[in-house]
Each structure stands twice: as structure tokens, then as C-alpha cells.
Amino acid sequence: xxxxxxxxxxxxxxxxxxxxxxxxxxxxxxxxxxxxxxxxxxxxxxxxxxxxxxxxxxxxxxxxxxxxxxxxxxxxxxxxxxxxxxxxxxxxxxxxxxxxxxxxxxxxxxxxxxxxxxxxxxxxxxxxxxxxxxxxxxxxxxxx
Length: 144
Known about the structure:
This protein is an alpha+beta fold. The protein is built from four helices and three strands.
């Protein structure tokens, strides 16, 4: 995996996920659950979908309108969580949120999500960078 400590590389990853979002669609499955997430200070208004079967995330997606940061972070999240157990997904989400809020975290499980490691420097962007993640987190807690 390439190093994402280069600001230009980080920007390229973010813009790629914004311009070509992954898993931006509705999950049409009877076991899929959804959670609407929005922000008051930005255009973000998305629905996060999660399909868990036998304690494994079979599919995760989202739809709606969101800013660059929210779209890119949610797109990256969808790729990271598919195929993970509930526990693995929870660990990834916790690590991501710890990174955003400047707490100790395991970067080795975050893949491309580490491009948001400096989000804490822009307090107004924290909600955008965590919107999809907190939606997935809430869905995982509901599923228990």
C-alpha cells in the first residue's frame, strides 16, 4: 500500500473517491437496514445502507448528496467494511473516529481512510468526515 503521508497523494485519493464514488447506490435486500444522516452546516444528506448476515457485512452503500469530504470518506468506508465481521468493522470504525478526534488508533487497519488524518485541523470538516462512519456505527449497534 502506498504511503498517504504526502499531501498531494492524499488529495488525489480524496478527489478520486469524490469524482468516482464507490458503492453509491441503494441496497435492495430484505435484510438491509438504513440510516439517514445529515448535517446542518453543510449540504450533506445521505442514507447509509448495511446488509449483515451471519455476523458478516455482505454489503454497505450509501446514497444522497454530500460534500467532497463526506462523499470521499463514506466511499472509502464502504470499501473497507464489506466482508468484515461485525467486530472487525466496529474496530475499523473506532480506529477511524479515534484518528479524527486525535486519540490513539491503529493506522494499519484503515487503508485509504488515513488520508483524513489531518481533518482535526479543520474542525468544521469533522462532521463531514465522520457522517457515513457514524451512520454505519449506529446501524451495527442496532443490529446487535
